UniProtKB/TrEMBL annotation, chain A:
NCBIfam families: nuoF_fam, PRK13596.1. It comes from the Bacteria. Signal peptide: none annotated. GO terms for molecular function: 4 iron, 4 sulfur cluster binding; FMN binding; metal ion binding; NAD binding; NADH dehydrogenase (ubiquinone) activity; quinone binding. Residues 336-381 form the NADH-ubiquinone oxidoreductase 51kDa subunit iron-sulphur binding domain. This is NADH-quinone oxidoreductase subunit F.
Automatic annotation (TrEMBL), chain B:
NDH-1 shuttles electrons from NADH, via FMN and iron-sulfur (Fe-S) centers, to quinones in the respiratory chain. Couples the redox reaction to proton translocation (for every two electrons transferred, four hydrogen ions are translocated across the cytoplasmic membrane), and thus conserves the redox energy in a proton gradient. Residues 1-85 form the 2Fe-2S ferredoxin-type domain. It comes from Candidatus Methylobacter favarea. Residues 221-277 form the 4Fe-4S Mo/W bis-MGD-type domain. Gene3D superfamilies: 3.10.20.740, 3.30.200.210, 3.40.50.740. Keywords: 2Fe-2S, 4Fe-4S, Iron, Iron-sulfur, Metal-binding, NAD, Quinone, Translocase, Ubiquinone. Binds 1 [2Fe-2S] cluster per subunit. One of its GO terms (biological process) is ATP synthesis coupled electron transport. SMART domains: Molybdop_Fe4S4, NADH-G_4Fe-4S_3. The gene is nuoG. This is NADH-quinone oxidoreductase.
């Protein structure tokens, strides 16, 4: 029981190797599963996870145990087709600036597999899918190997650990597209359809894959599950620094000294992450702002550095923890161009289903390009603000466009001068300065 | 019921309904694009945003999409609140970013839902300064134009074409603002309901290609309510005319019959009306034109002086025209003009419908069926619109599952996600594969005898009083057991059969099954081949064979043929002999055909678009059609020719004739109430066929005469050939065109319905003539199984939507879609004959005359010993069912094109 304060990454070695099944078992691997299937009822597993306070690590932060408890339970072995349930792992990590799930899958694949099996046990599902980002070739190889090892060892398949529980896990590598990370678009893609999101309600827990109850969780979320079962709820809750529980993979990219990824307690102050773990800004650069959790979160400023990195605290200052992987804006990079870069990505990745996203994002891009090329007009800033309002949460079919608007709306708020300088002076603030 | 508050006013609405549907049925102006009353909600376009308040104190509210929001009691919403109206305006602004400003040259202009909604939302000023994205267009066949630049990506086209109509060759490609709706490559759209894209598309991406050839704006078209004459279902249509030319057909909503949709034959088959083959003058001996009065005198004189005059009616002519002929020649001299088998089939069907006590459903009721058995029909080809309804009944099991999961039935995408789990039991017994097989739980392929035997076996399993066939195979027995079990469980089981496999036994077995079903809500429906087949069966009359005998035996010497090409009804030698034996042959028809060529007197008659009449569809629903425009002399309605030849006739007007017909036949008593008569006035005036914006009336004929001609008088119907008067609030049977203030497209229909997708306010048009009553005994005549005989094949004519129907084939776009002549053969039979796909076979009648040489197409679902022949050529009438023929392979070098011998 080494490294109990870093349960997710304790098997990850700096030498770039990965944890084998033996490595994983040596540090208590598959003990959570053994405990779950031999000592706990499915409902108890659900309750433990609920009590642990684990919240989804994909970005939205929805209570994991709560999600599971919404699955209609019944007799999974009956002939009634409605009782078939699925578990899907969202491993389609495509959020710009985010690379945390990749580490977990490449370096310690059994941890994810154990998490899936326990989750499937908790909701009594017998088929699970890993929906993996297509470009993650190494993850695919290592997961495939790990799945075979788990089957051979009786962790997976029929009568898992001599219990009555059966599970098969299928690895599906995505054909691509950012929108596949949206859980209902992911389901459509898995069914072989266009990756357009579905309307909610009904939520996937009621009608998901092939119209059946489906639990979808992020990779990192599921990696927490074996430890919660193995070491208990109380231990897990105490890992967090603030009211939030557990640990989280935090990352930083941009002009910091040591860009990277660290497992830290939930609620670690952002300043600690950036200054201590990422080593602070590179010489000659100053921190201008940062996106705290991937491309679809609002900019925060240096004044927010002492905010605790947990879902509620970051939300309180007007942004989102998201994936917890920060993108740093330094003082020599133009925020307008950074936003344009992001909006180009989002406009391209819109699935084309709903009007505001399909036609609003390209217009946003056109306006930003005009501004940068010196063709902008002051009223364009109002138009941009109008588009931000229009593509707000609830107005569009899914969260892609509202997410896309978050960096823009905060850039308009915090870096308005940069926009205006383009329009008035036809050059960047940086050049002017 | 729920009470909801919209902008301070209170309304009563059904709990759980879609808020958008409810708002529209209140007549509120709430714009939308992706929603469609028949296709439910998907929440894509975001156009129907309204503000919903959480409670009475809430002043801010939040935006919700009305289409995706279920109505709940005490709900408070605002359509007019600024955040909502601003959002809708800006949403249209986004839709218009790439939409071309080509309204003046766009065929949708004037009936464009996008125009209406843009006006309604108040988007007037363009802020976007960038370039528009453009697309390449595709050739989609002779029916539909494609102009993708106009697309606003509402997804209704693919939702109709793929989800609703079961097509698969129109898809959405690409993503973000580059989504493209088209085919994977250019080519004719394959689905038989593609024409509905014209009306489903809210703007001008998909427009009517046949209309393009002679385009006029909606407001420049004269329109009157009409009924489709291209099959026996009686779909309601709204044909449009300008300058004496029929320009197009669009759907006319009837909540009981066709709802929002037509088939492509009904929509694009109208070209025969404008055909150069039209008969325009009365002709004597095929040469000399005579005046109408001389023609009438001739007819009158013939009736007075001939040795005996017989009349041959027609299933494609109105009840009134048939009745007038029957009256003119006398009941005993009136013959129905059906081929012998069809006559027997229709009498059997009418007897069952009239006397069996089982409900015969409308298409709306068919969509409610929770188990279906189709006996011997490929309905897509015989009664196309019925196939579309059966596709909807296939969803009922999914709707039940959705309800149990608390998913509203209008949540279209969510309900469709469930379809992999559960299917409505639908069984199809047919000669070979049908176009509905994709929704079938199981299929059976066999000869008509074997289909009937399966039917009798099913009936016996449902009720052991029903006679059972002997010597069934194990496979047939277990299929019969499975089908019987599903039908027995159903609350609302439906049996579909009809005339197309020309078997009395199939029809009788269908009745036995229906009789044996325990459910009190069971339904039995039959397809019939022509628009007034059932009307003619109700009226009754002699057989064509008997008519031939009358002349050939010299009992009569003269014949009047009403709108009927006898060469489609009987062997050509027989008809030749008949027409040559008659001393005098009078033919009344609208198009030249082989029978008309042999007439002594040929009278030009009006088509459905230029005349009035009553038709009875397969449901037993009588419906009235009205002239869309005035036909110019000497063309007249058949009934007018016939009544004017009657001495001292009391029938001056069509209404008189309808009333007399109603009086003469108890089963037709209700036809006089089908629609108000010619005396009807709304607010003192007749109903205008021309919209109030009808342009150019004073000038449109100025090239002929500068004096504006007086509009033609219409003494026969409640309509005028003018634009004075109002059309709102007239009875549904008299509603010429759908329009409401601010709603110029056919989407205005929401405001004429009792709740969206409901009945028309004032009742759906038509009167049902037959209601379930009585009880018939079991049919006991079970045929023995079909046995393939060495070296002999039984010809099975296979109807086709494009080609089997007489009049639509005169429309070039329909003719273009007619499949190539071919014969279908079982693979083992093909092997025995040593032929592969594309090889040519000579078909001979009883080892003697070769009747046709056609290329082979191997069809795995066709049983051995049967020869499938698409019934697409009038000449194929010669290949008569159930004739046995022999086949001989034709050397490849000897022939290289299809050839028909007669």
């Amino acid at each position: 029981m080494e490294n109990l304060d870093k349960p997710l990454t304790r098997n990850i070695r700096p030498d770039r190797g990965f944890a084998t099944l033996a490595d994983y078992e040596n540090t208590g691997g598959y003990q959570g599963l053994r405990k779950a299937v031999t000592e706990l009822q499915p409902k108890e597993v659900q309750q433990w996870v609920k009590d642990s306070g684990l919240r989804g690590r994909g970005g939205a932060g929805f209570g994991t145990g709560l999600k599971w408890s919404l699955v209609p339970m019944g007799d999974a072995d009956s002939d009634n087709p409605h009782q078939i349930r699925y578990v899907i792992v969202n491993a389609d990590e495509m959020e710009p600036g985010t690379f945390k799930d990749r580490l977990l899958m490449e370096k310690d694949p059994h941890q994810l597999i154990e998490g899936i099996i326990i989750t499937a046990y908790a909701v009594q599902s017998h088929i699970a899918y890993i929906f993996l980002r297509g470009e993650y070739h190494l993850s695919a190889r290592r997961l495939e190997t790990a799945l075979q090892e788990a089957r051979a060892k009786g962790y997976l398949g029929e009568h898992i650990l001599n219990s009555e529980f059966n599970l098969e896990i299928h690895l599906h590598t995505s054909a691509g597209r950012y929108i596949c990370g949206e859980e209902t678009a992911l389901i459509n893609a898995l069914e072989g359809k266009r990756a357009n999101p579905r309307a909610k309600p009904p939520h996937p827990v009621v009608s998901g894959l092939w119209g059946r109850p489906t639990v979808i969780n992020n990779v990192e979320t599921l990696c927490n599950v074996p430890h919660i079962i193995n070491y208990g709820v109380q231990w897990y809750k105490e890992l967090g620094l603030s009211a939030a529980t557990g640990t989280k993979l935090f990352g930083a990219s941009g002009r910091v000294k040591r860009p990277g990824l660290w497992e830290l307690p939930m609620g670690t102050p952002i300043r600690d992450i950036l200054e201590e773990h990422a080593g602070g800004m590179q010489d000659g650069y100053k921190l201008r702002g940062f996106l705290p959790g991937g491309a679809s979160t609002d900019f925060l400023l240096p004044e927010h550095l002492d905010v605790a990195a947990d879902f509620d605290a970051v939300a309180k200052v007007g942004s989102r923890l998201g994936t917890g992987t920060m993108i740093i804006l330094d003082d020599k990079t133009c925020p307008v161009q950074m936003v344009l870069n992001l909006e180009e990505f989002f406009a391209q990745e819109s699935c084309g289903w709903c009007t505001p996203c399909r036609d609003g994002l390209p217009w946003t891009v056109t306006l930003l390009r005009d501004i940068i090329k010196g063709r902008g007009r002051m009223e364009d800033l109002d138009t941009l603000a109008g588009l931000v309002r229009m593509m707000g949460p609830g107005n569009t079919f899914c969260a892609l466009a509202p997410g896309a608007m978050e960096p823009l709306q905060s850039a308009l708020k915090y870096f308005r001068e940069d926009f205006e300088r383009y329009i008035v002076g036809n050059k960047t603030l940086l050049e002017a300065g | 019921m729920a009470t909801i508050e919209i902008d301070g006013k209170h309304y009563e609405a059904q709990d759980g309904q879609s808020l958008l549907a409810v708002c529209l049925s209140f007549g509120l102006n709430l714009p939308y694009f992706c929603w469609h009353p028949a296709m439910g909600s998907v929440g894509a376009c975001r156009q129907c945003a309204v503000l919903q308040y959480q409670n009475p104190e809430d002043k801010r509210g939040r935006l919700v999409m009305a289409c995706m929001t279920p109505v709940a009691d005490a709900m408070r919403i605002s359509i007019e609140a600024v955040p909502a109206s601003q959002f809708r305006r800006e949403n249209i602004e986004l839709l218009m970013i790439n939409h071309p400003h080509d309204c003046p040259v766009c065929e949708e202009g004037g009936e464009c839902h996008l125009q209406d909604m843009t006006e309604m939302s108040g988007h007037t000023f363009r802020r976007y300064r960038g370039q528009k994205r453009t697309h390449a267009n595709q050739y989609l066949g002779p029916f539909i134009n494609h102009e993708m630049n106009r697309c606003i990506a509402c997804y209704r086209c693919v939702r109709f074409y793929d989800d609703y109509a079961g097509g698969n060759d129109l898809q959405v490609f690409g993503m973000h603002n580059n989504v493209y709706f088209g085919r994977f490559e250019e080519g004719a759209l394959e689905n038989e309901f593609s024409g509905n894209l014209v009306e489903v598309c809210p703007t001008g991406v998909f427009t009517d290609r046949t209309f393009s050839a002679h385009y006029a704006r909606k407001w420049d078209l004269q329109t009157a309510p009409s009924v489709c004459i291209h099959c026996g279902l009686g779909c309601n249509t709204a044909p449009g005319e300008r300058y004496g030319q029929l320009r197009r057909i669009i759907n006319r909503y009837n909540g009981e019959v066709n709802g929002y949709f037509l088939c492509d034959r009904g929509r694009f088959g109208y070209g025969f009306v404008n055909s150069p083959e039209r008969i325009r003058e009365p002709l004597l001996d095929g040469r000399s034109e005579i005046t109408p009065q001389a023609a009438v005198n001739y007819l009158d004189n013939l009736c007075q002086t001939a040795k005996g005059v017989i009349g041959i009616g027609s299933p494609r002519a109105s009840l009134e025209a048939n009745f007038a002929l029957r009256t003119l020649v006398g009941e005993e001299n009136f013959f129905l003009g059906l081929n012998d088998i069809e006559h027997t089939l229709l009498s059997t069907i009418f007897n069952i419908l009239r006397n069996c006590g089982i409900h015969t459903p409308s298409l709306r009721e068919i969509e409610q069926a929770d188990a279906v058995l189709i006996m011997g029909e490929d309905v897509t080809h015989t009664a196309p619109r019925l196939a579309l309804s059966l596709r909807q009944s296939a969803r009922n099991a999914t709707f039940d599952l959705a309800r149990s999961l608390k998913i509203a039935p209008w949540q279209d995408a969510a309900v469709r996600e469930l379809k992999t789990q559960i299917k409505t039991p639908i069984f199809i017994a047919s000669v070979c594969a049908t176009r509905l097989d994709d929704i079938a739980t199981d299929t059976f392929h066999g000869s008509p005898e074997d289909i009937a035997r399966l039917g009798f076996a099913i009936a016996h399993r449902l009720d052991d009083q029903a006679p059972a066939p002997e010597l069934m195979s194990d496979a047939e027995n277990s299929l019969a057991t499975a089908i019987a079990a599903e039908l027995k469980q159903a609350k609302c089981p439906l049996i579909v059969s009809g005339t197309s496999c020309a078997s009395i036994a199939v029809i009788q077995s269908a009745y036995n099954i229906a009789k044996a079903l325990p459910s009190k809500d069971k339904q039995l429906t039959f397809t019939v081949p022509e628009c007034n087949s059932l009307g003619l069966a109700i009226m009754g009359g002699g057989r064509l064979r008997q008519a031939f005998e009358r002349i050939n035996e010299g009992v009569a010497d003269s014949v009047i043929v009403l709108e009927n090409d006898l060469y489609r009804r009987a062997h050509s030698q027989t008809v030749d002999l008949f027409l040559q034996s008659a001393a005098h042959v009078v033919v009344m028809d609208s198009l030249r055909n082989k029978t008309a060529e042999q007439s002594e007197l040929l009278l030009p008659t009006a088509t459905f678009a230029e005349s009035e009449g009553t038709l009875v569809n397969n449901e037993g629903r009588a419906q009235r059609y009205f002239p869309v425009y005035a036909v110019s002399e000497p063309v007249r309605g058949s009934w007018q020719w016939l009544t004017s030849a009657m001495e001292d006739s009391e029938w001056r007007h069509h209404d008189d004739l309808t009333a007399a017909c109603a009086q003469a036949f108890p089963d037709l008593a209700a036809i006089a109430q089908v629609a108000p008569g010619a005396a009807y006035r709304f607010k003192g005036s007749k109903i205008p066929r021309q919209p109030e914006r009808y342009s150019g009336r004073a000038a449109m004929f100025a090239n002929i005469n500068v004096r504006e001609p007086a509009p033609p008088q219409d003494l026969e119907t409640p309509f005028s050939f003018s634009m004075e008067g109002v059309t709102a609030q007239v009875p549904p049977a008299l509603l010429p065109v759908i329009r409401a203030p601010g709603w110029n497209s056919n989407q205005a229909v929401n405001q004429f319905e009792e709740g969206v997708e409901g009945h028309l306010r004032g009742g759906d048009p038509g009167m049902r003539l037959i209601e379930a009553s009585g009880n018939l005994a079991w049919f006991n005549d079970i045929p023995s199984a079909f046995k393939a005989e060495e070296g002999q094949w039984r010809i099975m004519p296979l109807p086709h939507i494009f080609g089997s129907e007489e009049l639509s084939l005169h429309s070039a776009p329909i003719a273009e879609r007619r499949p190539a002549p071919k014969i279908l053969l079982n693979p083992l039979d093909a092997q025995a004959l040593g032929v592969v796909n594309g090889d040519r076979l000579e078909i001979s009648r009883s080892m003697e005359t070769a009747i046709a040489t056609l290329p082979v197409q191997i069809e795995t679902t066709l049983p051995r010993g049967l020869l499938g022949v698409p019934a697409i050529l009038p000449e194929n009438q010669q290949i008569n069912n159930p004739e046995r023929v022999t086949l001989k392979k034709v050397a490849a070098e000897a022939e290289n094109k299809p050839e028909i011998f007669l």
